[in-house]
Amino acid sequence: MEKCIIVAIADNRAIGKANALLWHIAEDMKYFRQTTTGCPVVMGWMTFQSIGGKPLPKRDNVVISIFPWPDKPEGVKVAGSLEEAYSMVDTSTGSGSGKVFVMGGGETYRQALPTADKLYITHVHATIEDADTFFPVIDPEIWKVESTTPVAIDPETGYGYEFTIYTRR
User: Which of 14, 58, 79, 101 could form a disulfide with 10 if both were Cys (CB 3.0 to 4.6 A apart)?
Assistant: First the structure.
C-alpha cells in the first residue's frame, strides 16, 4: 500500500485557520477530486467536520477519532489511530492503484509524514500570517521532486499555484 499525503500549503507552510481552508482555488479542488477518487482517504475528526461531516463520494473514508462515535455517518469507518486507519483501508478495490491518501489536518499530517511514500502538494504562492495550522517542513534530504506543473494563477484569489509530487529518497 502506497501511503500518500495530499495538501495545499502556502509559502509559509500555512494550511488552515479556525478549522477551515485558507483559500478556494477551483483547480486545486478539481486536482484533489481527480487524484483521490477511487482511493481510500484518511482524515482527522476536525477535518471531517470541516468538510461538512459527510463522507467524500467514490472513496472509502476513514476518520481518526480518539473519542467514541456511536452515531457515525454511513460510509465512514472510525479508527483510533493513524496506524489503525491504515490497517482498515482496502486498497485492492477501485482505481487507486494501491494508494491511500491522508488529507488532514495538521496533527494527522505530522503523524503521517514520517511513513509517507509520496506527497501531492499544491504549493500556493501566498503567505498567510494569521493561519493557525501548518504543514511540517518538507526536508529535501528526505524528499525529491518527481514532477511539478508550471505556475498557474487562480483568477479568484490572484494566487499563483503549482502541483508538485514528491517521492521519498
Answer: 14
d(CA 19, CA 131): 10
Can you give the pLDDT at residue 57?
A: 95
User: Of 45-49, 96-100, 148-152, where does mean pLDDT reach its minimum?
Assistant: 96-100
Helical (H) or strand (E) element with 48: helix 45-50
Query: Which residues 6+ apart lie within 8 Å of 136 measured at CB?
Result: 13, 109, 110, 113
Question: What is the residue type of 72?
Answer: K
Q: How far apart are CA 103 and CA 44, in angstroms?
A: 8
Range of the domain at 117: 2-168
In angstroms, rounded to a whole number, what is the distance separating the alpha carbons of residues 48 and 108?
12
What CATH number does the domain containing 71 carry?
Answer: 3.40.430.10
How open is the CA angle 136-138-139, to the nearest 5 degrees? Answer: 120
How many domains does one find in the chain?
Answer: 1
Tell how far CA 84 is from the center of its chain. Answer: 18
pLDDT in tens, 122-144: 999 999 999 999 999 999 999 99
